[in-house]
Amino acid sequence: MTAQPLADPVDCREDGLMNRDSATALLVIDAQESFRQRPDEWAATANPAVIENIARLVDHARRVGDPVVWVTHAEAASGGVFDPELGFVRVFDELDPRADEVAVTKSTANAFTSTDLEQRLQRLGVYRVVVCGIRTEQCCETTARMASDLGFEVDFVTDATTTSPIAASGGLAALSGDDIMRRTESILAAREFATVVRTADRVGVSA
After folding, report:
1. C-alpha distance from residue 82 to each of 15, 50, 138 (Å)
2. 51: which DSSP letter?
3. pLDDT at 128 exceeding the cut of 70
4. Is the CB of residue 206 less than 8 Å from the CB of residue 64?
5. Are 127 and 23 in contact (CB under 8 A)?
6. pTM confidence score
7. Which domains does the chain have, with CATH numbers?
8. Would you give the DSSP letter of residue 174?
9. Is the predicted pLDDT of residue 3 greater than 70, yes or no?
């Protein structure tokens, strides 16, 4: 991946406990089993290290006391992999979400419009969100843009996101997953929706 740090990460406390007035929250977007139920698409994912990097961000957030927010996507009665009735709308088992951590389920691309996430973050005293998850240019990017519009400061951890290629269709050009990730981070940073950082930038804050 080519994500480069564009600013120094914020200072965090390493107190070992969740800080209920934390300035920063980690948003884990759609890191859910639904995607692995499309095996060909998952095999072509642009960033095979995504789950490992998300796990590193989660461990760091817990260590410094930042809230971890688990966002999943559901499409009720769709009959597809995002239909909660099929049992795939659950966070990847290896990420091991805790019962006391915030969890919301959305039905829109961004994590705010169809949930009470904004209000939950406000109650926690959060003013900065760290965005990671699946897919880079879809639910992760739209969440970052919406968070920025709502007044949150946003860190976008591109190498803790991933996506799949887009095939050429209807006269539109094909895009590789890596191309999509590069374009997303360039646009978010250049248009000032987010500060683009790497996983190492975040987990190294208190190292």
Report:
1. 37, 20, 15
2. H
3. yes
4. yes
5. yes
6. 0.88
7. 24-203 (3.40.50.850)
8. P
9. no
